[in-house]
Amino acid sequence: MLYAEKVTLVWQSVCQQPPSPDQQHVRGAGTNGVDIYNESENVRSKTPASYTSNMASWIALLLFGLGSATAQQYYIPVTGTSARPQCQATPSYSQPTYSPYSAFAYSMTETVRTATSVQPGPTITYAPPAASLTSLLSSLSFTTWGKWDPNATASATDTDNPYGDAAWTALWNTTVSPTPIPTTELVLPPPDYFGPTDCYYFPADFQFGVAGSAAQIEGATADEGKSPSLMDILIQDDRPKDYVTNENYYYYKQEIERLASMGVKYYSFSLAWSRILPFALPGTPVNRQGLDHYSDLIDFVLEKGMIPVLTVLHFDTPAQFFAANLSAAQAKPLIGYSNGGYQNETFVDAYVNYAKIVMTHYADRVPIWFTFNEPFIYSFNGLSVDHVLKAHAQVYHFYRESINGTGKISLKFNDNFGVPRDPANPNDVYAADHFNSFQLGLFCNPIFLGEDYPDSYKETVPDYVPLAPEDLAYINGTADFLGIDPYTATVVSPPVANSTDSIHECCTNTSSTYFPYCVNQSTLTTTGWDVGYRSQSYVYITPRYLRLYLSYLYNTFHTPIVITEFGFPVFGEAEQTTLSDQLSDMPRSVYYLSYMSEVLKAIWEDGVHVAGAFAWSFADNWEFGDYTAHFGLQTVNRTTQERRYKKSFFDLVDFMNTRTMPPQQGWSGGWTF
């Protein structure tokens, strides 16, 4: 695939009405010139051929037809100062008029606004109620396990561990009742001097929300019947465990109250499998307390006027899939970062049974479902991938054909977009294609295109399970959109410069330092600059690459796109000692506003159907043994569990509210249930 940036036009008037997304801005290169869609007059015109004769060599590279995917732009040397498109073409150098001296006064006008809470809407159902779906499941048994006794604190032996048993039992043991958020806490911060100046709008049904996951926020690890999961045994050293985290299991109503008060419409969360089925396998008892907990959570989300978005499995596979050998959880995978246990011979049947239980109980109230979160990262080998695909497909068919659900289903995929180090170098372009297809194509080819695994995957994972024609027919079309977590971009080239052979040599050498991606990844471009502003972790601010990535996904897999996670852990934020400094997170505001600005451009200028975006995360949380990478839109006091809104939360919500069409006036993005 050719990596280039699509040529687009500068708006004639910054705030005139934009065209509909299905209008193509660049029509293509013709023999007599370049067809251009004139925005201001809503007519088409052509530039004279003389204008294109000296540009033909690079236009041929930059333009490659309607609907083509694009990626990193070419480096085109220019001279002079930076462009100022908002200014007149011929500058006026007239002299300013200085005013006479006058009495000085300390006065400056500044508007003061408060966040607007989301308002409850009409009740909508997306499937028959649970009572009418029980016949779809084999007989279920329900059990209620006891709660930990808070008085047992004295007998705990890990008093030196701030996140151990003693610490947990000293905290809550009942659900916290929600209280209204004080108006003083909802006052918007002063606006930044620089900010987006676009005049585009999101469709009225654009899904904007925030996200979190059970293992990273719930705590209450062994309370009310929950059994151990992979997340409980993942960290074997002295780093923080997931035992306490944000105590969202008890704090969820106040959490939702805070989100609703900020005007957030969609709340994306995950279920803890081992909280609903403590013994994991089909035929074992369902934990009534766990099932009721999530039902109550969903009801409260709806009561506050929000829409629940549910992930069935977000990394926290029950520990039973590692059998008696819990050390297998630390085994190095052939593919992903961690061993998710998906390759276990009982996994598919157990997962499908679990998914059927939660769907029959919640599908009437939940319109958007994700079966797996980033399955690539926790796939151990080729059998893991096969099991994920077939389990997902079974759940999709159950939802559509047995439940007759009218909502949407997909998976959440990871892939920090690989862009070629030098887009004019075919070897770097090949490396970028290899990198992206290896992480996405193994799932997306069968699901969205009905096609076999990409060569990049089959060459790297020799134990992959071949997909028969009947497998592809069953899996094809089992997702209604592509969910992607595009946190950042990475600069890609072959392991050995200018050698695609070095990629293939790596694919057969598991001891290679480049395995399994088999490319060189860097944060530096050919000009020697970082690809973007650095965070506390791997994330760099790369908004223009996000826009190109959305085009790549849309035009490669031919489906609408939803950004299911994106976020930025500000560098050094955990080291801030005062609350006011923790709340003033300007780099995160830059990240979110620049990314969403590029999403708007992808919609309006590239014609990409982006249906939603979910910010990660709504509060600082447990990042798999780490509390220093603060991704949250709210701070969390680890002693008191108090939350406070950060500046970026206000900035992001205000950006979205300002740019989302009202339902009665705006066009719909086609996201209907």
Structure report:
It holds the Pfam family Glyco_hydro_1. Belongs to the glycosyl hydrolase 1 family. With 673 residues, the protein is an alpha/beta fold. It has two domains: 130-414 and 562-658, TIM Barrel, CATH 3.20.20.80; 415-480 and 490-530, no CATH class. The protein has 18 helices and 20 strands. The strands form six sheets. Strands 5-6-8-9-10-12-17-18 form an eight-stranded parallel barrel, surrounded by five helices. The two termini are 35 Å apart.
Secondary structure topology:
Layout: E1 26-30, E2 33-38, E3 43-46, H1 49-53, H2 56-62, E4 142-143, H3 165-169, E5 207-211, H4 214-217, H5 230-233, H6 248-261, E6 266-270, H7 273-276, E7 286-287, H8 288-303, E8 307-313, H9 347-362, E9 368-373, H10 382-403, E10 408-414, E11 417-420, H11 426-449, H12 455-460, H13 469-475, E12 482-485, E13 489-493, H14 501-507, E14 520-522, E15 533-534, E16 540-541, H15 543-557, E17 561-563, H16 579-583, H17 586-604, E18 610-616, E19 634-636, E20 643-645, H18 647-658
Helix pairs in contact: 6-8, 9-10, 15-17, 17-18
Family: Belongs to the glycosyl hydrolase 1 family.
Organism: Fonsecaea multimorphosa CBS 102226
GO biological process, one term: carbohydrate metabolic process
